[in-house]
């Protein structure tokens, strides 16, 4: 699975790398976690970063679901993801991701990133979910206020696949990392053709190292989290 990642690349570099407008509200992130609003690039608006909640809720759901990952092998078959796979694909900018591996006396976190720490895009899907309208009591008629209606929730999930040779030392799954020249195809390509993009990224440009256990808590989000620590 992919349950945490980093995006500490500067706004200027992100804008250049993905050819997008980066809003002033963008902040460097060292511990992107499920449930948080995080940057994505959609096929609908590929020229700007938008902020969606990590944890997909299908448009037809009765309640929030928070699906943080979708398996590449079955994404087209699962009702929760099939519609989004056909028409609502997105890029999830990142510059590293965390994996936990069992050392025998507990699990330890490791950061996986390109050796030069460059940003990349993970393959994602997004949805817009309308919360169910609440039933009003009889005494509420005449006092309704449209401003009280719940806002639509825009959410995303990250696709995972088999690990490459490096990540397999840490975990049995990894995020689908796209080549730069695959990103536009992922956003706009035919659903049959983009299935070929969902393979493990080659291991030779990646590196990994152990990081502080502080990353275990989503409340910690600072530069020290991406610093190597002694094993």
Automatic annotation (TrEMBL):
Entry keyword set = Covalent protein-DNA linkage, DNA damage, DNA-binding, Hydrolase, Lyase, Protease
Which InterPro entries does the entry mention?
Answer: SRAP (IPR003738), SRAP-like (IPR036590)
Give the molecular function GO annotations: lyase activity; peptidase activity; single-stranded DNA binding
Q: State whether keyword Chloroplast applies.
A: no
SUPFAM superfamilies for the chain: BB1717-like
GO biological process terms on file: protein-DNA covalent cross-linking repair; proteolysis
Q: Which Pfam families match?
A: SRAP
Q: Which family does this protein fall into?
A: Belongs to the SOS response-associated peptidase family.
Name under which the protein is recorded: SOS response-associated peptidase
**Origin species:** Halonotius terrestris
């Amino acid at each position: 699975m992919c349950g945490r990642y980093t995006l500490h690349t500067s706004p200027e570099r992100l804008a250049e790398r993905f050819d997008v407008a980066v809003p002033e509200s963008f902040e460097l992130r060292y511990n992107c976690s499920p449930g948080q609003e995080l940057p994505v690039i959609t096929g609908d608006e590929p020229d700007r970063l938008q902020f969606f909640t990590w944890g997909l809720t299908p448009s037809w759901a009765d309640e929030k679901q928070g699906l943080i990952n979708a398996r590449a092998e079955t994404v087209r078959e699962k009702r929760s993801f099939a519609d989004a796979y056909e028409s609502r694909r997105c890029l999830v900018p990142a510059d590293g991701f965390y994996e936990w591996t069992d050392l025998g006396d507990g699990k330890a976190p490791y950061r996986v990133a390109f050796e030069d720490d460059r940003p990349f895009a993970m393959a994602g899907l997004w949805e817009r979910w309308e919360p169910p309208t609440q039933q009003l009591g009889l005494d509420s008629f005449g006092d309704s206020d449209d401003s009280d209606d719940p806002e639509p929730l825009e959410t995303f999930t990250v696709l995972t696949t088999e690990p490459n040779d490096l990540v397999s030392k840490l975990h049995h799954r990894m995020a689908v990392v796209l080549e730069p020249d695959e990103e536009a195809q992922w956003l706009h390509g035919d659903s049959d053709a983009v299935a070929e993009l969902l393979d493990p990224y080659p291991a030779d440009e990646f590196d990994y190292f152990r990081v502080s256990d502080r990353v275990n808590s989503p409340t910690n989000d600072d530069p020290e989290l991406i610093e190597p620590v002694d094993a």
